[in-house]
Amino acid sequence: MAAPRPIRVGQIVPSSNVTMETEIPALLRAREAIAPERFTFHSSRMRMKKVTREELSAMDADSDRCALELSDAAVDVLGYACLVAIMSMGHGYHRQSEARLHSRTVENGRPAPVVTSAGALIDGLQALGAARVAVVAPYMKPLTQLVVSYIENEGIAVSDWLALEIPDNLEVAAQDPANLLEHYKRLDLTGIDALVLSACVQMPSLPAVQKVEDAIGLPVVSAAICTTHQMLKRLGLDTRVPGAGALLSGRY
């Protein structure tokens, strides 16, 4: 009997993003060590170099083409890999984006569930029951404030936040995740239920997440971890990845 084909994970990725195609595969490869499912990864890119509101808006308009291209490959789930692009388009926009991009796959005869990293962050925090969080983001302060406002509009209070103020997207990707072991200490963690260690799928954080979670004794997530959690849920699979923090412990 032939083995079932691997699950195809499609990603809509900013052209300058080099992290999402490493962190999500790393998470799902780690899952392969403890579960039978196997995955392949397929991307389509939207132009974006500078993390500005203007470039993000222009890039988002290109996401429909990407959804069509990925549905040509009959992907089983589709992830939109830019949190701030969605959040900069207005409160609740992840629902509109997910519905629109899913409709593109339906129209193409290859329907696939769509996850946005923005919606996944909200859903992940809600799954943890987090009413109050602190956030680390690489963006300039005005964009970080948009992210904070977006999260708070979904009923989750942001008690403190840190903007690293890096405008160039490749420079965001070049950040050493070990630096996050110090960055988070600049935040007031009093009374929070969870820490968002990277509110950006371009800023690497995986090697730091479990270490910070162990240090503070609270759930620690990133946009990539939340996106992986939602992808597994949409696929109907166990949400368990070793060493990736509480959200991917399988309890949620």
Number of strands: 8
| Rg over CA atoms | 17 Å
Q: Strand count, sense and closure of the main sheet?
A: 4 strands, parallel
Order of helices and strands: EHEHHEHHEHEHEHHEHEH
Overview of this protein structure:
The structure is a single chain. With 252 residues, the chain is an alpha/beta fold. Helix content is 42%, strand content 17%. The protein has a four-stranded parallel sheet with strand order 2-1-3-4, with helices on both faces. A four-stranded parallel sheet has the order 6-5-7-8, with helices on both faces. α1 (20-32) crosses α11, α3 packs across α5 (93-107) and α6 packs across α11 (223-234). It is globular. The two termini are 33 Å apart.
List key phrases describing it.
alpha/beta, single chain, four-stranded parallel sheet, globular, 11 helices, 252 residues
Q: How would the blueprint of this fold be written?
A:
Layout: E1 7-14, H1 20-32, E2 39-46, H2 53-60, H3 63-72, E3 77-80, H4 83-87, H5 93-107, E4 114-116, H6 117-127, E5 132-137, H7 141-153, E6 157-163, H8 169-173, H9 180-183, E7 194-198, H10 206-216, E8 220-222, H11 223-234
Parallel strand pairs: 1-2, 1-3, 3-4, 5-6, 5-7, 7-8
